[in-house]
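Protein modeling request. Please complete all fields; requests missing the sequence field cannot be processed.
Requester role: graduate student
Desired output: 3D structure, C-alpha cell encoding
Chains: 1
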Amino acid sequence: MKRLIKWVLLNYGTQKATRFVDHLKTLGFHSATTAGISLGIDDLRIPPVKSVFLKNAEKDILDNDIRYTRGQITAVERLEKALDIWNTTNDTLKNAVIAHFRETDIFNPVYIPLRADAPLHRGTDVGRRSKRHRRPRGPQPNGPRQRR
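Delivered output (148 residues):
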C-alpha cells in the first residue's frame, strides 16, 4: 500500500495523491461496512506475555549464534534452528493471543474469526498452511497427474 501511494505521489503530485488516498480510505470503509467488519485500534490487544516470549526467543537465537561461532553447528543448521525458534515463538504467541481474547473479550472482532468454531476461510492460518502442502499443478516428471 505504501509503495502504491508513493508511486501515485511521485507520478501525479500531492493534490491527486491526496484525493487518491481519500478515495482509498472511503473504499476501505465502504467495503468493511458492507462486509460487516468493524475494527478499531483498541481491538488489537497484545497479551502481557509477549515480551517474555520475545526475550526467550532472542536468547535462544543468541545461544544458537554462539554455537555457530564456536563451530558446533553449520550455517544451514543455524538457519534451520533460527527458523524453528521463530516459528515456535510465533505459534506460542498466537495461542497466547487467542487465550487472552478468550479470557478478556470473546466478542473482539480480531478474535471472532480465530475461534475454534469459526468457519474456515482463505485467510485462516490453517488454510495458509494447507495451501503450502498441496501437490503442485501441471505436468509432472513421471507423466500427467491423475485426477482423484
